[in-house]
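Exercise 7. Given the encoded structure of a 269-residue chain, write a plausible sequence.
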């Protein structure tokens, strides 16, 4: 018989910009509840001060292992930092806690490592560089257009506090576009005279990637395609971090029924 008990969720990075949204979204969603929160920057802070409906006895802890052992969560949602996340995933999987990970900055080697950890520990994980439905459709459309154009640039714009550049979404988009072309690289336009280092952005799969960082943005991306006599721009704009929550909640609901590592949310949308 299917258990009707709410899914027990631990939020890692709970005091951060995304973590606070996740605490509220999980606690308000039917069929799940926040049972623990970890963030060294918020130790001792009461969760009720972040989220009205949280249990008033819950406080943010500083130790993931202790929080898992004390509260027996089924799912850890992690929005922390690139240099922290691999350790958190390993700790969670070692305790057979499923992972829903939004933290960005993974290398291909990291992804393979998580895949192996999931198989070895027999616990599932979902890692997605972008949980917004609109951004995932933008990536899907960009992969479709990639087959038809010779030139492509990605321009991503994020808030001033973002730790990594380019964004995980930009790199994932480039990977999907490259995969859609089955090894046929984009054309790169050479610039014989460079007057400023980095003016053309960074290059991956023949795609130039440009990162803008400043106050005022949350997370935007344009994918620009070019061919003789025309350009096509596919653009996604974020106006609030709320846009990531439906994807996060979907992943929390689905992850326990999956096996191994699911990379991206396209397959569960
Ligand atoms: P943030 O800096 O506001 O929050 C990160 C939090 O992690 C901080 O509060 C920090 O104290 C905490 N932290 C540090 N070490 C920790 C540890 N060992 N255990 C638990 N918490 C720890 O950053 P943010 O804007 O909330 O973004 C977090 C991550 O999410 C970034 O990698 C960002 O790129 C990514 N992100 C992903 C998506 C997506 O849809 N996948 C969307 C937005 C942001």
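Solution.
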């Amino acid at each position: 018989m299917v258990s009707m008990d709410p899914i027990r969720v631990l939020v890692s990075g709970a005091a951060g910009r995304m973590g606070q949204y996740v605490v509220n979204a999980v606690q308000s969603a039917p069929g799940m509840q926040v049972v623990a929160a970890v963030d060294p920057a918020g130790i001792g802070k009461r969760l009720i001060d972040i989220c009205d409906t949280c249990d008033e006895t819950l406080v943010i802890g500083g130790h993931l292992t202790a929080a898992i052992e004390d509260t027996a969560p089924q799912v850890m949602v992690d929005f922390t930092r690139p240099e922290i996340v691999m350790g958190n995933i390993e700790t969670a999987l070692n305790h057979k806690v499923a992972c829903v990970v939004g933290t960005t900055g993974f290398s291909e080697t990291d992804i393979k490592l998580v895949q192996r950890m999931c198989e070895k520990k027999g616990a599932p994980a979902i890692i997605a560089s972008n949980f917004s439905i609109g951004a995932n459709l933008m990536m899907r459309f960009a992969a479709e257009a990639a087959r038809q154009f010779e030139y492509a640039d990605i321009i991503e714009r994020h808030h001033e506090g973002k730790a990594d550049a380019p964004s995980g979404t930009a790199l994932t988009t480039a990977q999907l576009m490259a995969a859609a072309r089955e090894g046929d690289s984009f054309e790169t336009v050479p610039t014989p005279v460079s007057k400023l280092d980095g003016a053309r952005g960074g290059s991956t799969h023949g795609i130039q990637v440009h990162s803008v960082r400043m106050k005022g943005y949350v997370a935007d991306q344009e994918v620009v395609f070019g061919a003789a006599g025309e350009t096509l721009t596919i653009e996604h704009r974020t106006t609030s971090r709320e846009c990531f929550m439906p994807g996060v909640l979907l992943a929390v609901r689905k992850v326990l029924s999956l096996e191994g590592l699911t990379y991206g949310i396209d397959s569960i949308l």
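Remark. The CA atoms of residues 86 and 113 lie 9 Å apart. Students should compare their own answers with the one above.
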